[in-house]
Amino acid sequence: MLNIALFGPPGAGKGTQSEFLTSKYNLYYISTGDLLRKEMAEKTRLGLEAQSIIASGGLVPDEIIVQIIEKTITENPGSNGFLFDGFPRTYIQAYILEGLMIKLHTSLNCLISLNVPEEESVKRLMNRGLTSGRSDDNEQVIRNRLKEYNDKTLPVLQFYKDRGIYVEVDGTSGIEEVHEQITQIIRQELSKSLFNIVLFGYPGSGRGSQGKALARHFGLEYVATGPMLDQEIKLNTETGKKINELYENGQLVPDEIVVQLIEKKLADSKDIKGFIFKGFPRTLVQSYILDGLLKKHGSSISQIIEIEVPTLELISRLDARSKTEGCMPYDNSTARIVKRLQEHETKTVPVIDKYKQLHGVTKVDGLGTFEEVFERISQEIETGFKRLR
Ligand code: AMP
Q1: Residue 346 in 3-state DSSP?
Q2: Which of 13, 25, 2 is nearest to 113 (CA)?
Q3: Ligand 1 atom 14: the closest Cα is on which residue?
Q4: Ligand 1 in reach of 33 Cβ (< 6 A)
Q5: pLDDT in tens, 315-364
Q6: What is the distance between the alpha carbons of residues 17 and 226, in angstroms, rounded to a whole number?
Q7: Alpha helix locations (H) across the chain?
């Protein structure tokens, strides 16, 4: 997730910059000012309580802010991230934001402060007042809003300076220039966050060999549940014996076993750019597990790729593999091969369909030489990187 707070005095351009940031990075926009105006328009209890305070240019009590913001955040937990405009505005609200982020197993990436001198703010807001229709865009109220900003909101900066996530931008330059400065900051932020790929395809589509090579090429950690389970079998652990039995019957290994192995793998991976998951998630339940595991690391799925290979070609590849030395127990008879293909069809295809609706899935033609397919997938990943960063 990418969570950003835009900070600055009234009239600094937070709203204007938010528009492009939300669409470019697919963030959920939260403006406490907009939320309060909506409550006022709907004449709700909170709206009525806030009305006179807003009209005078004061700050609405933190108790009201926490209620409107909590509702909005918890109703949209699956978003790519949040963009906060006009929040946090008090030192208490900075703590509130910390708590809300913890609740979502994520954190604020940075607070970007748009610096604008007071007289420039007044000039901009007076201008906006000509068309905004906002009763608080008149000189007397503007002066009061700026006083509130200096007294109560500016101290919030120290909170983020202490945490090392405060960045400032010169808000007096043109809209395009400010936009460019913010993009640079976000690009840097994103380069610190994990890039996670899920690689799908039927057994025999080349997911394994491609996944390993792609992980090496892009500096990502390869997470393949199959080889992790094989390792258990090789070491002849108790888990390994259980797994072997399931393989013999062409069945999937229970989630409890898989989750433990993946959890350990993610926890042991330090200083990495991201993960490539292969063979996981295989079921809808596992897709929820993966979301949870990544969220624990403050992360989420960045890209989903499906390698497509016609069924007859899959059977012929798997059959050829069954005659090699490295043949695994699940590949050594036609009946088992068919069972695995069926498992994919009934359990994993619905997962891919779910992702198609949620994130979009990139399909790649899996026919051709290893290098050709590798090249195709790499290009898609490059595009994914660029789109996100
Ligand atoms: P804005 O649209 O952000 O300029 O907000 C308009 C008015 O709503 C402010 O002058 C405050 O009265 C109130 N307001 C908006 N956000 C907050 C907040 N986070 N804390 C307290 N009051 C707020």
Answers
A1: helix
A2: 13
A3: 33
A4: yes
A5: 999 988 888 876 766 677 888 888 889 989 999 999 999 999 887 899 99
A6: 46
A7: 14-25, 32-41, 45-56, 62-75, 91-103, 118-132, 139-148, 156-163, 175-192, 207-218, 225-234, 238-248, 255-268, 284-296, 311-322, 334-343, 349-358, 370-388
- Domains in the chain (CATH in brackets) are 2-191 (3.40.50.300), 197-388 (3.40.50.300)
Residue 70 CB neighbours (<10 A): 14
Place of tokens 């994103």: 190
Concatenated DSSP letters for 59-105?
A: PPPHHHHHHHHHHHHHH-TTSS-EEEES---SHHHHHHHHHHHHHTT
Q: In angstroms, rounded to a whole number, what is the distance separating the alpha carbons of residues 79 and 74?
A: 10
How far is ligand 1, taken at its centre, from the CA of residue 10, in Å?
Answer: 9
Would the CA dihedral through 352, 355, 356, 362 be positive or negative?
negative
Kindly report, residue by residue over 234-252, the tens digit of the pLDDT.
999 998 999 989 888 877 7
Separation in Å, CA 213 to CA 101, 104, 188, 207? 36, 34, 26, 10
CA gap 352, 343 in Å, rounded: 13
Residue 299 CB–ligand 1 contact under 6 Å: no
Tokens of 216: 């090496």
> How many whole angstroms from 72 Cα to the centroid of ligand 1?
16
Question: Using CA atoms, how far apart are residues 135 and 138, in angstroms rounded to an integer?
Answer: 7
